[in-house]
């Protein structure tokens, strides 16, 4: 994960390296942000997050690579 880019950009990077189409990428990222309760932090730099929030971003990066993912909560 990269501390000098936003939460959204960190998640997006995981999809870009797998060449996921732009609309599919956006759809997956919005769902992941919502599922992991990170929507309010999407524009924050990773270095500004707590340890638990960083762990959720890391989990989101893993989820982003899968077409289907689980629901938390």
TrEMBL record:
Keywords: Transport. InterPro entries: ABC_SmlMolc_Importer, ABC_transporter-like_ATP-bd, P-loop_NTPase. Residues 3-67 form the ABC transporter domain. It comes from the Bacteria. GO terms for molecular function: ATP binding; ATP hydrolysis activity. Pfam families: ABC_tran. The keyword Transport applies. This is ABC transporter domain-containing protein.
């Amino acid at each position: 994960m990269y501390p000098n880019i936003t939460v959204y950009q960190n998640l997006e990077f995981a999809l870009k390296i797998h060449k996921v189409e732009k609309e599919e990428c956006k759809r997956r990222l919005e769902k992941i942000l919502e599922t992991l309760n990170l929507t309010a932090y999407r524009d924050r730099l990773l270095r500004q997050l707590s340890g638990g929030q960083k762990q959720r971003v890391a989990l989101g990066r893993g989820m982003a690579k899968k077409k289907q993912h689980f629901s938390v909560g």
